[in-house]
Automatic annotation (TrEMBL):
InterPro entries: G_crystallin-like. Keywords: Signal. It comes from the Eukaryota. Gene3D superfamilies: Crystallins. It comes from Pyronema omphalodes (strain CBS 100304). SUPFAM superfamilies: gamma-Crystallin-like. Residues 1-18 form the signal peptide. This is Uncharacterized protein.
Length: 114
């Protein structure tokens, strides 16, 4: 029992470090309409056309936790199509200049722009 406690602490620390960023996105403001937590893998470009969520050019609210996500207007996560990035942040009503535009997303522990 004396050895158990340090093991529990160590394993909970390592699982926290290994935990991926999570993203929740919705079709309408205030997390309404069709939503998805169909998560992009870390540092993987996630094209919304490839999913069955019908959220391409539809996302109006989002929640990022455990890291950062970068949102793009076109497929392929190219810097020229960059809309905005969010670290551990949520927004119930994306501004009109970004609303219904997101077409690809890349998430990771910290944001990378490439
Ligand atoms: Ca778009």
């Amino acid at each position: 029992m004396q050895l158990l406690l340090p093991t529990i602490i160590l394993s909970s620390i390592s699982s926290a470090l290994a935990q991926s960023v999570s993203l929740y996105v919705c079709e309408h403001k205030d997390f309404g309409g069709t939503c998805s937590n169909n998560l992009p893998k870390d540092n993987h470009c996630y094209n919304l056309e490839e999913t069955n969520d019908f959220l391409d050019n539809q996302i109006s609210s989002y929640r990022v936790s455990g890291g950062c996500c970068v949102f793009y207007d076109q497929y392929g996560c190219n810097m020229r199509d960059h809309l905005f990035s969010a670290t551990n942040r949520q927004h119930g009503k994306i501004g009109s200049w970004h609303n219904d535009k997101i077409s690809s997303i890349k998430c990771d522990k910290i944001c990378r722009f490439d």
